[in-house]
Amino acid sequence: MNLDKLKKKAAWAALDYIRPGAIIGVGTGTTIFYFIQALSTIKSIIHGAVSSSNTSTFLLKKQGIQVFNLKNFSSLTIYIDSADEINHQMQMIKGGGAALTREKIIAAMAKQFICIVDKSKIVDALGKFPLPIEIIPMALSYVSKEIIKIGGEPKHRKNIITDNGNIIIDAYNLCIKDPILMEKKINSLPGVVTVGLFASRRADIVLIGTKKGIRTIKQNKII
Ligand code: 5RP
C-alpha cells in the first residue's frame, strides 16, 4: 500500500475524535488535504475551523467549511495535524510545509493535539528530516552560523516566503538528543520566529496509518 493511502486512512480516523459543535484547529500538508476532505463530510455537525495556513484556509473554504480568525480565540478543544517525524515520546519535527509558526500557535492553544501520520513518519530519534526554522530574513547569516556551532548544516529553503513574510532555514544532520533543550536553544536565538521542534508541546494522541489499519498511541501506550 502506498504512503498516500496510509495518510488518507489516518486522516479519516481523526473524524472519530470530533465532537458536534466543535471548532477544529486544522494543520497543513498532504495528510491534512485528506483530512479536510474527510471533515467536509461532517461539516453540518461542526461549528467551523481555525487554520494554520493560507493553503488550508483555501481548502477549507472550498469545501464549504467556515474558517474563523484565530486572533479571536484563546483556546481550542482540538487540533488535527500531521508531522514530518514523530518519536515514541510523541515529540515531532514539523514545518516541511513551511507553516510551523501558525501550527505551533494552534498546538499551544489546543486542549488535545491529534497527530495523523503514515507509518513512515515514526522514528526512534528526531533529526533525520532537516529541522525547519522560520526566521526574520535579516537574521539569515547569523542564525546559520549559530546552527553550524551546534553541529547542524543550515540550508536556506529557496523560493519560500512563509504566510508571515519570513524565510526558512532547514538544519540538516542535527543530533537531537534532548528535543526539549534543543527547541529552547534554537527558539532563543535572536531572529528565530519558530523552530519546527514540537517537543515541549507534543501530541496527545497519534493515529498511524498502517497496512493493517490504524495504530493509536495515547500517552505512550499502544491501543
Ligand atoms: C507543515 C507540516 C506538515 O504537518 C508536515 O510537513 C507533514 O506534511 P505531509 O502531511 O505533507 O507529509 O508541518 O508545515
Topology:
Elements: H1 3-13, E1 23-26, H2 30-40, E2 48-51, H3 54-62, E3 67-68, E4 76-81, E5 85-86, E6 92-93, H4 100-109, E7 110-118, E8 131-135, H5 140-149, E9 153-156, E10 167-172, H6 179-187, E11 192-195, E12 197-198, E13 205-210, E14 213-218, E15 221-222
Parallel strand pairs: 1-2, 1-4, 2-3, 4-7, 7-13
Antiparallel strand pairs: 5-6, 6-12, 8-10, 8-11, 9-10, 13-14, 14-15
Written description of the protein model:
Helix 1 (3-13) packs across helix 2. The chain has 6 helices and 15 strands. The protein folds into 2 domains: 3-122 and 200-222, Rossmann fold (3-Layer(aba) Sandwich); 131-195, Alpha-Beta Plaits. It is an alpha/beta fold and 223 residues long. The strands form 3 sheets. It has an 8-stranded mixed β-sheet with strand order 3-2-1-4-7-13-14-15. A 4-stranded antiparallel β-sheet has the order 9-10-8-11. The site of ribulose-5-phosphate (5RP) has 17 residues, from helix 2 and helix 4. Substrate binds at residues 28-31, 81-84, 94-97, 121. The active site is at 103 (proton acceptor).
Strand content: 25-35%
Low-confidence stretches: none
First and last CA, distance:
22 Å
CATH domain class of the largest domain: Alpha Beta
Helix content: 25-40%
Strand order of the largest sheet: 3-2-1-4-7-13-14-15
Give the SSE string.
HEHEHEEEEHEEHEEHEEEEE
Give the tally of β-strands: 15
Number of helices: 6
- What is the CA-based Rg, rounded? 17 Å
CATH topology term of the largest domain? Rossmann fold
Helix and strand content put the structural class at: alpha/beta
Count of domain modules: 2
Small molecules in complex: ribulose-5-phosphate
Quaternary structure type: single chain
User: Biggest sheet, in brief?
Assistant: 8 strands, mixed
Q: Mean of the pLDDT scores?
A: 96
What coarse outline follows from CA principal-axis ratios? globular
Name of the CATH architecture of the largest domain? 3-Layer(aba) Sandwich
